[in-house]
């Protein structure tokens, strides 16, 4: 047997080969396991980030939505289509937002609806939504101004067919309406005589009785004869905001879902310049606002058998008709009247209506979750929150001693409300025991840039 001796140089070669093989084994092992190691690192980093966000943001923050989503995603396997470990952190955040359905920080309509908030899917509602726009006209040739805006801002003739119903038989006004041709449907009230049955002491108010008769006839035409399920009513002296249709499209699902709602209104009686500032804020109100409002046929079927001879709007505000139901209304109005001359002879216009602010910046209501306006959610959030705000007095406003951005002022009686409202610039009158724009007695306005809720103290 021949013995082979390895030289010193040979030993170094053997050692080098062994190191090379061992090194490659280590690299191979790391290569095989690198995904799981990276996954663990990524999950750890994501856990730290999400926990940090959740600990420092409020319950309604957009960051909380993202953090909650990341918290769920870190439990998913690395091959998930949503979780992409190879992306840098900033890009990964964008990818996560894209995949879980964020659109400019807002939840899209495909997001699952929370059982507590019972969110409204406005995208589906918008595609199926049809509402006839019923224009109540009489003897104003300036109806052209109203119709021009309705046509200018309308996105779909199919979704918002326009019906113009004329009373009074005023030929110049009829000629203007006819000039729109097939863009509108033109109907005319056939009975132009005095309304029968008006009390002798009220005959000087015949105009109010004719208006009530016209409303009943026109609504009957739209609902009963033309077969529309939803009608949006405006008068011939109304300007509309650029997001008028957007507003009604987004709020229609609330009207369908919540039986405690009976109308959607574009009006705010306290919507004067300086008394409003947020075009994305909507409220519930127990007061029927009118002046650009939407109802469903089911409500019309309920109201028409007892429709009043006159003063239909005040009749709507009475308890037997309202039945503790509310309307939705905006902080900044989506309608404004330009009709100084009318049955009220312009007095109310000069004192109040000409100061109303018309919203001029669109808000994407159909991309906004409006489920906070459902009664269960609203009473738990808005009403309870208002009662927890700092309590101040009107004198503190005059002395410039109010520094909070949102406060409440109390009143204990109708007279006290009228005193507070007058000093803060709000409407002072009650209709059927309810202050204008109030919800559960709370009237919300803006005074000197501060959000003020005038709240009953009992």
Report on this model:
There is one protein chain. The protein is an alpha/beta fold. 40% of the residues lie in helices and 16% in strands. It contains 15 helices and 18 strands. The strands form five sheets. Strands 5-4-3-6-10-8-11-9 form an eight-stranded mixed β-sheet, sandwiched between helices. The longest helix is centred in the first third of the chain and has 49 residues, at 8-56. It starts with 7 loop residues before the first helix and ends with a strand.
Task: Reconstruct the topology from this structure.
Elements lengths: L7 H49 L5 H12 L15 H11 L2 E2 L2 E2 L14 H7 L3 E6 L5 H11 L8 E5 L4 H8 L6 E4 L17 H20 L4 E6 L2 E3 L3 H14 L3 E5 L16 E4 L7 E4 H7 L8 H5 L2 H4 L3 E5 L4 E3 L9 H5 L23 H13 L3 E2 L1 H5 L7 E6 L2 H11 L5 E2 L2 E2 L7 E5 L2 E7 L2
Parallel strand pairs: 3-4, 3-6, 4-5, 8-11, 13-14, 14-18
Antiparallel strand pairs: 1-2, 6-10, 7-12, 8-10, 9-11, 15-16, 17-18
Helix content: 25-40%
Which residues sit in consecutive blocks of at least 5 with pLDDT less than 50? 1-5, 31-44, 52-67, 69-117
Largest sheet: 8 strands, mixed
Strand numbers in spatial order across the main sheet: 5-4-3-6-10-8-11-9
Please tally the helical runs, counting DSSP H or I stretches of 4 or more residues: 15
| Structural class by SSE content | alpha/beta
Mean pLDDT: 81
Distance between the termini: 114 Å
Strand content: 15-25%
Number of strands: 18
Tell me the radius of gyration.
Answer: 32 Å
Shape: globular
């Amino acid at each position: 047997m021949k013995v082979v001796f390895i030289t010193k140089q040979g030993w170094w070669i053997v050692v080098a080969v062994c190191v090379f093989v061992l090194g490659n084994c280590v690299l191979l092992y790391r290569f095989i396991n690198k995904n799981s190691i990276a996954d663990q690192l990524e999950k750890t980093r994501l856990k730290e980030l999400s926990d940090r966000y959740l600990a420092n943001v409020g319950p309604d923050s957009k960051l909380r939505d993202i953090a909650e989503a990341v918290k769920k995603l870190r439990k998913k396997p690395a091959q998930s289509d949503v979780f992409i470990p190879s992306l840098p952190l900033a890009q990964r955040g964008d990818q996560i937002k894209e995949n879980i359905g964020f659109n400019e920080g807002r939840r899209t309509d495909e997001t699952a609806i929370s059982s507590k908030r019972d969110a409204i899917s406005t995208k589906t509602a918008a595609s199926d939504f049809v509402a006839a726009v019923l224009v109540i006209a009489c003897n104003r040739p300036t109806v052209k101004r109203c119709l021009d805006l309705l046509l200018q801002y309308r996105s779909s003739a199919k979704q918002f067919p326009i019906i113009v119903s004329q009373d009074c038989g005023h030929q110049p006004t009829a000629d203007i309406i006819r000039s729109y041709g097939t863009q509108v449907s033109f109907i005319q009230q056939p009975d132009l005589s005095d309304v029968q049955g008006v009390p002798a002491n009220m005959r000087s108010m015949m105009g109010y009785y004719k208006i009530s008769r016209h409303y009943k006839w026109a609504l009957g035409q739209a609902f009963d004869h033309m077969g529309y399920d939803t009608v949006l009513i405006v008068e011939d002296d109304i300007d509309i905001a650029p997001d008028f249709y957007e507003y009604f499209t987004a709020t229609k699902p609330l009207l369908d879902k919540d039986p405690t709602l009976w109308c959607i209104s574009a009006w705010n009686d306290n919507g004067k310049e300086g008394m409003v500032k947020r075009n994305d804020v909507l409220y519930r109100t127990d007061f029927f606002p009118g002046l650009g409002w939407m109802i469903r046929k089911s409500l019309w079927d309920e109201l028409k058998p007892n429709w009043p001879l006159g003063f239909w709007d005040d009749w709507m505000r009475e308890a037997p008709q309202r039945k503790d139901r509310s309307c939705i209304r905006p902080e900044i109005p989506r309608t404004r009247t330009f009709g100084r001359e009318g049955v009220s002879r312009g007095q109310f216009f000069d004192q109040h209506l000409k100061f109303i602010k018309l919203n001029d910046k669109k808000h994407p209501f159909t991309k906004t979750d409006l489920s906070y306006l459902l009664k269960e959610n609203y009473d738990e959030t808005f009403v309870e929150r208002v009662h927890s705000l700092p309590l101040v007095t009107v004198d503190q406003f005059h002395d410039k001693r109010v520094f909070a951005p949102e406060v409440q002022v109390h009143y204990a009686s109708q007279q006290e409300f009228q005193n507070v409202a007058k000093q803060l610039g709000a409407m002072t009158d009650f209709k059927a025991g309810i202050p204008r724009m109030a919800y559960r007695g709370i009237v919300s306005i803006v005074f000197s840039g501060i959000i003020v809720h005038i709240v009953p103290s009992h």
